[in-house]
Design brief:
Strand 3 and strand 4 form a beta hairpin. Helices cover 43% and strands 16% of the residues.
Length: 176
Amino acid sequence: MSDQPAATEETPATTTPESSPPAASAEVQIGAGAAPSPEPKRQSGAQSGGYFWGTGRRKTAVARVRIKSGDGKFLINKREINNHFFAERDRTDIVAPLKTTKTFGKYDVFVNVSGGGQTGQAGAVMLGLARALLKANPELEGLLRDGRYLTRDDRKVERKKPGQPGARKRFQFSKR
């Protein structure tokens, strides 16, 4: 029976306009207090071991890039960059995000890349490196976007169609 009088006391309190605004402000405080706790963990930046990760893809190649403050070591599949990419164009493309942001020699870069060919792998490493740099220093986003290093090149080889010799090529048409 004590529950019924308490309910009657709360019922008039909830119907008065004065009690409604404090309830709304209490919800705002609860929501504001709960939201910031997960945010600092996501924005902490460096993940395991002080590394910043970035994933890049181009054609069928996938590159997983880790960067960490250091003296400029650059390893691709546990080999020096010159022993993995032989074309000067590919080596230039890969280090372009570092040179554009003036961070060349300030980070150690470790890359695992697989799939595709030389050009596809170089494009994948470039995108992964740019994404890792963005995580390491969000202030570099303007420079990386201006250089188009954060844009994924989604062009792939078109598939061969049945009844044709290639993707677009047709067999010679004979009228008679």
